[in-house]
Amino acid sequence: MSALYVIDGFSMAYRGHFALMRNPVMTSTGINTSSILVFANVLMGLLEREKPEYLVVVFDTPEPTFRHKAYADYKAGRDAMPDDLAVAIPRIHDLVDALQIATLQAPGWEADDLAATLAHQAEAEGIDTFLVTSDKDYEQLVSARTRVCRPGGSGEQYQVLGVEEVLEKWQIERVEQVVDILALMGDKVDNVPGIPGIGEKTAQKLIKQFGTVEQLLASTDELKGKQKERVETHADDARMSKELIILHREVPLEFAWEDLRVQPPDLEKTKALCAELELRTLAERILGKDVSLEPERNYRHLEDVPHEYQLVTTEAALEALVADLLEQSRVCFDLETTSLDVKRCGILGVAFSCAAGTGYYADWDAVGEDAMLSVLERL
Question: Which of 11, 69, 77, 129 gets the highest tally of CB atoms within 10 A of its CB?
């Protein structure tokens, strides 16, 4: 049976970043690749174990959505994206591109709405959908053909939530009641207000008793004390919160199912990206154990490079060299030593060059330390 896997791009990127916060994976140049690595594990785990026919990653865009227009404070006060993660996001796009996995984003819509629309259309086509995310809002989409996959910290293992699991988790009778519970609870991350003082347990009890937010607001005479006051005072917030949380299933997406079909990775792009980000394990996983991430080098040798190199072993020759160097507009030099320990190493010699293909090496012991120091002081 055909299956579509939809990955919530930013959800997985954030999860990967914070999952390895205490022990981040860094390149030798200081790039934090934690989120990229976990994201890659999610992708490869799905491809290797599930072998989906269709796979797509959905991303948010920076443009305001209809939710921002309906509620100006929507997502207000969110912490800025960590700098390391901001650097990693474009590379996650590069990874998805290298693996030739489809992506979708639509200005004015959140990735959640794109996922809802894809699941809705897939169901109409008789395709099972698996929504890969850590966002609880997705659980309102669960049906006989749509399930939520919640990856663990490394991204390799995940929990699958179907209708039965969602009903059990939220203690509800119908999946659509997930929206009602979330509307009453609110969401601090997205700044969805909900009703102050109502948490998950209280929201579950109220929805179990009244069924929906609307029926609760129409039955406040059955509530008592502070709870009655809060619900009546924040009735409009509850209604608005429900509208903000409902995921839209009719986003005008332009795609063909063939566009979402899983393709073999672009091996050259994958190798180049893994080499740049030092993801050797991932490279071996995709390209094989024998893959080399070392760049191909076209080394040249003395035999095929025109050169004029001279060895300086006498004080007279060193005097002549220094006189010549003082006439040059620029000189490069390199001190050759017995080790890299600046406090303990001994000096072997000094190499000089004024032009490509030319060079001089003054041997420290052959010329003598006193003579070397005396002559070199003039440079």
Answer: 129
